[in-house]
Amino acid sequence: MQLFTCPFCGPRPETEFHFGGDADNDRPGAEASDASWTDYLFFRHNRKGPAREIWMHLSCREAFLMERDTVTHTVTATLALGGEA
Amino acid sequence: MSGWRTGAGWALDRSESLSFTFDGKTVPTFKGDTVASALLASGQRIVGRSFKYHRPRGFWGAGSEEPNGIADIHGAQHRPNVQMTLEPAAQGLRLRSINGHPTAEHDRMAFLDRFSRFIPAAFYYKTFMRPDWHLFEPRIRAMAGLGRLDLAAQGFGPSASVNTTCDVLVVGAGPAGLAAAKTEAKAGRKVILCDEGMHVGGSLLYRPARIDGQEARDWVAAMVAELTALGVRILARTTAFGRYDHGLTGLAEAQPGGAAPRIWHVRAAETILAAGAIERHLPFANNDLPGVMSAEAGLHYLARFGVAVGRRVVVATTNGTAYDTARALHEAGAEVTLLDLRGRAAAGQHPFRIIAGQTIETALGRRQVEAVRLASGERIEADTVLVSGGHTPTVHLYSQAQGKLRWDEGLRAFLPGDPVPGLRVIGAAVGIYDLSRILPGQGVVATAYGSSTALWPKPRAKGRIWLDMQNDVTTKDVELAHRENLTSVEHLKRYTTLGMANDQGRMSNLPGLALMAELTGRSIPETGTTTYRPPFSPVPLASFAGLRGGELMNPVRRLPLEAEHRVDGALFREYGGWLRPAWFGPDEGAVMREAKAARQGVGLFDGSPLGKIEVIGPDAAKFVDFIYYNTMSTLKPGRCRYGFVLTEGGAVYDDGVLVRLDENRFIVSCSSSHVQGMGLLLEEWRQDKFDRSRVVIHDTTANYATLTVTGPKSRDLLQAIGLEAALDDASLPHMALTLGQFQGDEVRITRVSFTGDRSYELSIRADRALGLWRRLKEAGRAFDAVLLGGEALMILRAEKGYIVIGKDTDGRTRPMDLGVKGPFEKRKGDYLGRRSLHLPAVADQARDLVGLESLGAEPLPVGAHVVETVAGKRRSRGFVTTSHMSPNLNRPIALGLVEGGSARMGEVVTLHHLGQEVQARIAPVCALDPEGRLLDA
Ligand SMILES: [Zn+2]
Which residue of A has its CA nearest to B421? Predict the structure, then answer.
């Protein structure tokens, strides 16, 4: 059981969190090509090592950015989005 | 008969004589014994049979390292595969050995041992492959396995898990762990100390020593008192079984009675691993015979339980620790010969015979050890052989924490290498065995163990040398694996099952890989070691389940009016996580009556789980436009609109009515079972794409009860109870909303319909709903009102062809497949899932929702496939999603997803289900009142 630090609530067990995907998987615009749209939909980096991800803390419903290492499971930073907290 | 009781044994309370049975034999015991110590005292040598060859097996150890002494406890507190070395003896226990048919002493399967050369490692992969493994599998599986589960027994009682935190968790309460716990506690830290044994103290429970002028055990007692006074929580019979992320350690604490071990989730800032070391075996032929035991265990049984394990004892050792054992047994009256494999005896006077530099070539004896023959040819008569092949530090938790082990050539052991943050390893677990080094400056008087040597198994040895006693892995199996090129340790393990016994290779791994190193010409560290994974000792699944069973397995959500519905005779079922009335009445016949009566008079339905998620703020309209497939910003305040919400992949995720309360406030009436998911979806998109100060999401589903009044007389009923609102069709048309009052509480009245009849949904504070519901029931008598359960509602909506998402749709159903093409073709601007609807691959999937009219008298089976033969091959063209007998149409009705279905109206198709074929005609989805006149009737 990992421990993630919600920028609003502090350290909480991982079961309270919902994975939202890679942080930099920006949604293409309406005129995106089929290829870039399916990239956005289906292709994941599945990075080994440092990763930037969006997570939501289900208890407070705030999404935030988490930087962690997928090998060591070290959480290096959790940052509120939109400059809050 | 070889084991016997001395007068000693500090752990025993001899005032009370108890007994238990083992394989039907009565075994006398005292309070304080383990099952193993009592069996050894009674002279019971054979306590089980090995897994493969059914060789007789006796105890090897005295703790969790025991590979042989496993039994099933029968009776009310049935537990399979109990390690007898850790199980307290108790009055009336009924134990049965494992793998013995019928008993461990007399095993019909023992003949298998004579065929052992025909059943080498992986024999079942080779011998039984032709003609087909599955012919042999049932009988081989029946012979395999350890204990037997008594299916009639109750199983474990539940134990609630504990979640806790501390500054320091100390694993192992031997001298190193006790001292560390004291240091930490005195520094003001919150400490938890656990040990798998019944008593804390570790080796001090049996090794002779004086510390600070006290006998070792007195020192332990004083430490326990001091630690308790310092607030240290001491957990005995508690195994730290696994190390997990971010400082979490899992403990399993044995419980009295029939309860499962309790799981502790301990999140510690620092964990100190003081788990000690496990004694190794020595390689000699027949080293698996009952009577061959760990020297440490021999001392343990003698000191703690007053059990001398033999009368004529050979002690064979590569190190100084076994001298304690030899001396103690000699003093207890046994005839002891010590073989010191280091080449010369330890310094000092020894009152027993010592032979230096001689190894045992073979143990002799059929059912148990009777003698040993040395390499010199000398034969020594012996009923017991106690061996110490050195020690293997218990580094499992360090390794589980991703710690990298390093090989220490001096100690001939894998030790913790680079430090792991938050984990410190001390004492024998880092190869420090001398007590004076574990407790420096504390006036320790104890045996100095001196140097040690190692004796690894060699290739091409004479006779059979066991590595894994439970799984019957011998050196020959490792040699076979090498010949077949399975030389990596992970392959070796899987091919030979070395280390797969429930001791998880505590004894067998290192000699096995030492032999493989020798065979491949590599060093031991080059050969490597297998990955350590939790659990360190077996933990019953019931422990992990904890209280999560029965009703608590997946707790249902409950209606505010549940008690009232029970009084009205509701049968409850779970629908999308909610416990709801399926029908009202003693039998299922109620469903048809309810569905019929609702269309004639008025039906009352508790729709409280219906989603009521509010979207509020100046950007609310912009937000719902993006979320919904349909344009929603054009909706006028006080009006409702039906729509779909898609996944980003273009599939329909939810449907429902969006209510616009005012310019900046909407209510998302999502499906009952999608409230959680929709809440999350809305929140994610709000935070991802919108100005969060201009739109907020607020889930009020549980705040309100929603009571549905449906049927031709629904308006009359509402007018009769007086809701202080204009209910005429001009003021409140279909898909509109108004606010009323009931006994001082606001009632939100929405005119929407899931039945096709005129319908009203009344939402009121959940805690005030009972008054309104009772009033509806009372006043309803004059209008032939009927209570509607969920099953009748399903029929009513199916008659109209109204869909249930997830039932009439699947993960690839698009809105166009449900006949809603407008937004796809005409809508400007972006919305969730829009781009995916235009992907060519998605467009290929067209499978339309259609009605299906059975050509027979019976309803079509749900799940039946529409089949067609194409080029000689039959293939599915779709399937039935919903099917009922309609009480209002007096015929079967059905919905289904069929390829190209909307263009095939009137076509007769064949449906296949469980070997039967039926015919049906493709029809419009709406079977009743296609013009929608009933909405205003
Ligand atoms: Zn939070």
Answer: A74
